[in-house]
């Protein structure tokens, strides 16, 4: 009797594990919906300058993981580096970016709205103070994208800390 009961639970658990592995039928196949293409204007190799025209660095944005993820590889003019991964989260209908640079981490989420990609997130400094971050990418033309990074102590009053222009160097 105990052996039969044990066998029943093993079969039941196995069936549950199999059903948990089934794909979500409402999810897009291979990132085929239009939402996954909203950030494609950023794909390419770029020279990045600030609002005074001073070179800040270079950036290479490529599609990886079957075109579902945008990978950013940043190199500053002073030699620093950073990387981000950007993906459309179909289940929540938001864009997500995780940026890393040495010990630094920035997690942003948002949407493509009014012709712009707007992502926001909160960081906490070593002093424990929260900073709201909002980064907006705007395609001006095929060969030009602007990026504005604003910060705020309270999420209502914003200060621009970076106003950059991405000039395409290759597709």
Characteristic terms for this protein:
171 residues, mainly beta, ten-stranded antiparallel beta barrel, 10 strands, 11% helix, globular, disordered N terminus
Describe the structure.
The chain has 171 residues and is mainly β. Helix content is 11%, strand content 54%. Strands 1-2-3-4-5-6-7-8-9-10 form a ten-stranded antiparallel beta barrel. The longest helix is centred in the first third of the chain and has 19 residues, at 2-20. The protein is globular, with a radius of gyration of 21 Å.
Q: How large a portion of the residues is in β-strands, by DSSP E?
A: over 45%
Kindly report the average pLDDT value. Answer: 87
Number of helices: 1
Output the strand order for the largest sheet.
1-2-3-4-5-6-7-8-9-10
Structural class: mainly beta
Strand tally, please? 10
Indicate the radius of gyration in whole angstroms: 21 Å
For the record, give the distance between the C-alpha atoms at the N and C termini, rounded to a whole number.
68 Å
Element string (H = helix, E = strand): HEEEEEEEEEE
Which regions are unreliable across 5 or more consecutive residues at pLDDT < 50?
A: 1-23
How is the main sheet built?
10 strands, antiparallel, barrel
Q: What would you call the shape?
A: globular
> What level of helicity do the residues show?
10-25%
